[in-house]
Amino acid sequence: MRNIRTHLFLIMILTVIFCIGVTGMIINISISSHFKSYMEESQKKREDRIVASFESIYSKDKKWTTVSGIELQHEAHMSNFCISLLDDKKNMIWGMDPKLITETLGFDNMVVSNHKGDYVSKNLPIRYNGSVVGYVNIGQYSDLLLTQDDVDFSKKINGSIVIAITISIVIGLAVSLVVGKQFSLPVRRIAEVSKKIANGDLDARASYETKITEIRELKETINDLADKLNYQDDLRRRLISDVSHEIRTPLNVLQNIIEAMIDGIYPINNETLELINSEVIRFGKLLNNMKSLTYIDERTDNVDNKPVDLDILIKNILEYYKGEIDSKNLMLQYENNLSDDDVVLGDEDMLKQVYINLISNAIKYNKTEGKLKVTLLETRGIIRSTIEDTGIGIKKSDVPFIFERFYRGDRSREVTEGTGVGLTISKKIVDLHKGSIKIESEDGKFTRVVIEFNKIIKV
Ligand code: ADP
């Protein structure tokens, strides 16, 4: 396993070496080939010049002597090639010994282009008035002869390439160290924070500032995750305290009543047995709520798709709660502008559960002689229902969490019992029906729940 820094470092160095190597090779090959053609050209010019010299000598004397053009030997000595003069029958008139080049002449100053050392020579015709009057034989120990300057030039180019490679590697090294640090440091810091969170420190947060989008997103995601875990943890604590609270109260009541009965303080009659029964019913309710929450939670999106008449559904629920509405002296108002054919598609039992939860909350959390307003209105294909009460309201700080399971607002705890799952179930059901639900409330004044569904026209 390698860390980001080492990994980047290796990639960078290998890339630099590769790029410079390839560039160096291309430069070297192209310089060599240009250099070779330049040398070949100058050799050709030299040969033409030597042939022209012999032609001019012949044009003066009209014959060859053993000293014709002998002075050209000097240049040949200096430049490490051999010249021989041959007549038109290729008989030698005079000639240099190739061995002299290697033994006595300045061969050390010259470098052959391919160090094979084979002696190569060629006969170049010397012409006078269009006919060949002799040959000059030019020979040397290589196809090309390079002077020390030529070799030095080529060496310098290679040297420069090596220097360029070295400088590039050093720069690449420095850059990779800096860049590697930019990547590895924030990732390491974030990893440290994640470890802390994993070890239970849910307040740990990553704070490293970086301009790299992905790393910033990673940081935000980790912090978000920690927030959620923190919140879930909080919820779990609340759940335990809520459930134990909910169970403790009816249990205490039951225990007191039963003890009083045993001690003979409390009579065993219908009235007292009913009291016990109502506490047992509360237990049952709590368990039922938890059960339906689990059930709804497991549902994905396969709900019934039957037409549901919300008007009838709501009217029935209001009728069912008539007793409670009356006993609290609530002023009930129901508005409805749906035509008989306006329905929503869904699961009637589930939708009933939603309106039971909301209407019962609006009664439960209402003040005596408060208002309970239910509306069912259709606008542009949307069926919008509102359940509004003038009760205890919900604190602003509680509103964002009100649909979370087991969440109970501070106010409601003071006023009445509950399990904090009714709204969670309602939201889940509305979501399953592709509708929307939201709560508007003002602490101590009112609460309004707004639900919207797409309308279907019954055929
Ligand atoms: P429960 O009523 O059993 O506590 P719910 O899920 O129905 O559970 O509601 C969750 C919380 O939302 C309640 O505890 C209460 O704080 C708040 N709430 C819901 N409806 C109302 C309302 N009509 N008026 C005031 N508070 C409400």
UniProtKB/TrEMBL annotation:
Reaction(s) catalysed by this chain, per the record, are: ATP + protein L-histidine = ADP + protein N-phospho-L-histidine
Q: Might you give the EC number(s) for this enzyme?
A: 2.7.13.3
Protein origin, superkingdom: Bacteria
Presence of keyword Transferase: yes
Q: Which InterPro entries match?
A: HAMP_dom (IPR003660), HATPase_C_sf (IPR036890), HATPase_dom (IPR003594), His_kinase_dom (IPR005467), HisK_dim/P_dom (IPR003661), HisK_dim/P_sf (IPR036097), HssS/ArlS-like (IPR050398), Sig_transdc_His_kin-like_C (IPR004358)
Q: Give start and end of each HAMP domain.
A: 181-234
Compartment(s) where it occurs, according to its Swiss-Prot or TrEMBL record: Cell membrane
Annotated Gene Ontology MF terms?
ATP binding; phosphorelay sensor kinase activity
Q: Report the transmembrane regions from the record.
A: 7-31, 157-179
Keywords (A to Z) from UniProt = ATP-binding, Cell membrane, Kinase, Membrane, Nucleotide-binding, Phosphoprotein, Transferase, Transmembrane, Transmembrane helix, Two-component regulatory system
Looking at the record, the residues that make up the Histidine kinase domain are 242-457
A single Gene Ontology CC annotation of this entry is: plasma membrane
According to Swiss-Prot or TrEMBL, what is its membrane topology?
Answer: Multi-pass membrane protein
What's the protein here called? histidine kinase
Q: Which organism is it from?
A: Clostridium manihotivorum
